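Ticket #4471: structure output looks truncated?

Reporter: J.K.
Steps to reproduce: submitted the chain below (254 residues) through the standard prediction queue, then opened the result file.
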Amino acid sequence: MQFPTSSRIITQQFGENPAIYAQFGFPGHNGIDFAGVLGDPIYAADAGMLHVHPLDPQGYGLYCTITHKENLTSYYCHLQQLVVKDKATLKAGDLIGFMGNSGFSTGPHLHLGLRKLPYTKNDPYKGYIDPLPYLQETESNASLPSSLPQTSFSSLACPLPAGGGQSSTISSRTVDKKGTAVIKATLLNIRSAPSIQAPVIGILYESAVLGYEKMVMVQSGGGWEDVWLCFGEVLYVAAVFQGVAYVQLDNGTI
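Returned output as attached by the reporter:
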């Protein structure tokens, strides 16, 4: 299989962040995430038949799968746009769409999943396996540059599709506290409300300095207390979401 994007920046490895993915029935992240920018081209990792799936706004967003030989299926998630029709036959390297920020996502990226079927009942990953050992550089993509500088922070979260999404909000409270924060994620969404399901109206990039006017603590059904920073009166970014910090506050508390 070849890399599905020009980016080689992996912001979340297979099996990482078990505390986040336990609520979705996985012992860790069920794929790998490539950072990039909106509109980066996404290519088929290997030959096979493409299947377009219904939009999953609380999970994979706009996504498709490709069925390959040896009972393998690859997943391409959080897309901005698909350019291939359902049941199209593809070869490795064919353009399938463009990188997006749809679904359960904190910034533009590609979630690449790889699943081997059938799987045994005692498989905690339900057939998902690490795609990275299967990926190889090819002559056509080996020299392509990465889109973004390397970061040690995970800048996204991607649960399983269809039925797995953010837990509903139980309660929230506002703390009147002003300060500054430095963005530590590669990319971080600006939303119109303190919720992962609120519309995305902008993006902040790594190392950007943000002056915030208040904090909103949101207690979710998964037992997490998420922290959102409010600025410009009606703009919000996730400072801490499901236990993962995306900013560094001026007082160093996050």
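Triage note (M.O.): checked the attachment and the full token line is present. The chain has a mean pLDDT of 82.
Status: closed, working as intended.
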